[in-house]
C-alpha cells in the first residue's frame, strides 16, 4: 500500500510502498478515506527538536482520519465491516491508576498513533477496536476526518459551563475556531477571538464569532464596549501557545474567571501570579479528548445542528502532500485535509 513515511531522522516525508498492516484478534483494519494535517505532523515533517526527541524513523505519520472498516479481528464484536469510523489516536495501557479509574485520557503510558506507532497517512490502518469511533448517523468523510481536532476543541470549550458567559479565545487556528463555534452552540453570550492572521480572523467571523481581534492592534479589553460587557471575560480558552496571549487573557478575566489552556508554548511562560491569586482565577491544562465522553459530545453537537464543515478550507489528494503541508504550515487558512480515496 501507499503511505507517507518519515524514512530517516531529518526533514521531509516520502510517499512509499509499505506492507499492509496485520490485524490482531482485537484489531480492525480500516480503509482510509480522508486525513487531516495536524500541527504535530508539521513538527514531524519539519523535524524540529520536539520531533527529534519523540519520533523514531521509519514511521508512517498522521493520526487524524476517517475510513471504512474492511476487516475485524476474531474477538471484535462491537465494530463491523462496512462501518464508517474515525479513530482515537491515543492508545492507553489499561492498567495504570487513571486507566483503572476510567480516566483513560490521563494514562501515564499513552502512546500516539503517528508518533510512536504507525499512523493514518496510508491507504490502510489497523488499530484496536477499543479506539474506533463508529459514526452511527450519516456524516461526510471530510468532517469525520477532523474528529480528533474537533475533540480537542470540544474538550477545551466544555471544560467550564458556557451558558450565558462571555468567552475569550486566543488563537484562531482551526481548533481555536472550532472551540469558538462550540462555545456559541453551548450557549455563550459573546465569543471574542484573537489572532495575528487576518485570513483566519476573517474565517472566524464568517463562522459566527461575536468579534475578531487582531492581536497586533487590540487588547482583549478593547472588545468590552462592543460586546456590552461591564466586567471581564468569564471563560478563557487559550489555544495559541503564545506567552503574550496568555498574559493578556489573565489580565482581561473577571474575578473568579476560568481559563482552559490547550495551546502548547515552545518554552516557559512568565505570568502575573498575583492577579491569578487576587482575582481567584482558575487555570486548567487540557490534553487530547476524554475517552470517550468527548467523542459522544462531538456526535451530539453535530446531531443538534452544529456545522463544522466550514473550518475545512483546503483539500488535496495525498499525492499532493507537499502542497498540503505547505498550505497547513502557512498558517493562513483553516483545516487542511488529504484524500486517500481510490
TrEMBL record:
Q: Which residues bind Zn(2+) 1?
A: 38, 63-64
Gene Ontology cellular component terms for the protein in this record: cytoplasm
Q: Which catalytic reaction applies to this protein?
A: L-threonine + NAD(+) = (2S)-2-amino-3-oxobutanoate + NADH + H(+)
What EC number is given for this enzyme? Answer: 1.1.1.103
Query: InterPro entries of this UniProt entry?
Result: ADH-like_C, ADH-like_N, ADH_Zn_CS, GroES-like_sf, L-Threonine_3-DHase, NAD(P)-bd_dom_sf, Zn_alcohol_dh
Name its co-factor(s): Zn(2+)
- Give the classification, highest ranks: Bacteria, Bacillati, Actinomycetota, Actinomycetes, Propionibacteriales
- Quaternary structure and interacting proteins, as annotated: Homotetramer.
Q: Which gene encodes it?
A: tdh
Origin species: Microlunatus endophyticus
| Annotated PROSITE patterns | ADH_ZINC
Q: What is this protein called?
A: L-threonine 3-dehydrogenase
